[in-house]
Write a structure and sequence with these properties.
alpha/beta; 427 residues; globular
Length: 427
Amino acid sequence: MWARKRIDIGFMDLMFAFWRCIGNPLKKVSVPSLASMPAPHKCLVCLSVRSGFDLLLSAQDWPKDSEIIFTGLTIPDMPRIARQHGFRPVGVDLDISKLEPAMDEIQRLVTPQTKAIVIAHLMGGRLPTTEIARIAKQQNLFLIEDFAQSYRGHLFLSGDASMFSFGTIKTNTALGGAIMIIADPKLRERMINRHNQWPQQSRIRYAKRILKYSLVKLISTRPSASIIRRTCWFLPSQHDSLAAGMAKSFSGGDFFKKIRHRPSNPLSRTLTQRISNFRPQIIDCRIRRGKLLLETIREKNPRIKILGDEIEQATFWIFAILAQNPRNLTEILWRHGFDATRQSSLQAVQSLSDEKLPNSEVHAHRVPSGKTTQQNQTELPNIDFILSHLVFLPVDLPIPESEIVRMGELVARHAIPTSLVLDECSR
């Protein structure tokens, strides 16, 4: 069984991280500087991107019921955090091929209550944001760019704030941690002051995390994964749920209590060491595998839609296709030794009217145009279509290229194209 996603950290690095946790806690050890940062004075190390985003919103002086526009496909915790601070998330639909929003749609959603735009760069690619930045500047909006899926070894400021994640399944993971880069020094100072009031993650908690994911990394190797595959032969959905649950960082209750911690010293040291020692060859190798899978599927069955196939600078952090038979296709690939999945942490940003009104009243209260976002907010048809037909395929190391080709051929043979449905959706 080829696992869907490897944990991108070596056993030696895990051993050193664990050693930092069990070393003398009273010994003062300075956290090394991040050599790859262009402007260290603008950076803040947080426990996670969720923590940093929560911190960022808490330091703003926006009035309650202010609106934040999100690219409509994101992890649900981000709009959840916005709502916790009294702000209203507004989703904007995405193009299926480029996974970018239409500029006229963003402009249509901007109201006097809009204070920020959050752009998530998905699938390992990077969206062109020149036009979005221009709109944000014209409308005096705070521009936040989420690079959690798109780290390539460089940290940089884009917009008013940039967010980089080093969570469990992210590129160059430290099993936690995030870098927030903030342009406004006064805002960053307010964030630091609030951050210093949070309790610090314990060494024991981080040590437990290292042990847990060392085990996960071990069982995700092909021999161990094959044993699990045979064990779950008649219940592939159970294996799918188990694998998805392992990747969750803040499962269970007390979500805000969990994210409102400063990273432990061992985590900060591991994070800075991982950033300083990043090997870009990993990205090059992943791009080669992603392109090979894309070309194989296109050659064998060009009608199959590959999600985000026109993304600029794609690095294939994840690889997804759209199929009419997603459940059947994942089971076929699973039985041929490929850990494909429909499970995703990504969800559509719910419209404001959906959150405020009972289901039976939602459609009746939709208004196509007007002065407020509650009137402007529409459904997200492309994102709904994506989530209904999505299948993720494993392309990460150490899958050999011959197996990538075999998987592509299986997809081409068994996936039912969505082209007819896509045509109807676009009309």
